[in-house]
From TrEMBL:
This is Hydrogenase expression/formation protein. Belongs to the HupG/HyaE family. SUPFAM superfamilies: Thioredoxin-like. It comes from Exilibacterium tricleocarpae.
Length: 134
């Protein structure tokens, strides 16, 4: 089940719906990508809050960060590849390497500080993207 606010990210904001089939292309097309895992809206209503905040975060990091939405049928497979601690989750990637995640709803200043730190994080060559077979 997808909430109307999460659906709006795809339909209005034109964020791609990330799945196991298109993830390799999304990673190739975006140096920095945040995957939004909203979770079941009945169990994790905070997903709607993050769905409202996400476009503002992308705007705040304009040109440095793009977003994709992971729908429920792909959440398990993609969460195994990019683990995070709690729903809803934002998983930050650089060329497919996980930089970290931000879970649940945060204060605006915390988002800005944490995302800036994640985007500035170094990644080693040993973490290069293996061929993605999800």
């Amino acid at each position: 089940m997808i909430s109307p606010l999460v659906r709006r990210l795809v339909e209005v904001w034109k964020y791609p719906a990330a799945d196991t089939g298109n993830l390799p292309q999304l990673l190739a097309d975006n140096e920095h990508l945040v995957l939004f895992f909203p979770g079941d809206p009945e169990r994790y209503p905070e997903g709607d809050d993050v769905a409202v905040i996400l476009p503002e975060l992308v705007r705040a990091f304009e040109g440095r960060l793009n977003a994709a939405v992971v729908h429920s049928e792909n959440e398990t497979a993609l969460r195994q590849r990019y683990p995070f601690k709690a729903w809803p989750g934002l998983v930050f990637l650089r060329r497919g390497v996980q930089l970290g995640s931000i879970c649940k709803v945060k204060d605006w200043a915390d988002y800005l500080e944490q995302i800036e730190a994640l985007l500035g994080r170094e990644t080693g060559a040993e973490q290069a993207i293996p061929s993605v077979n999800l």
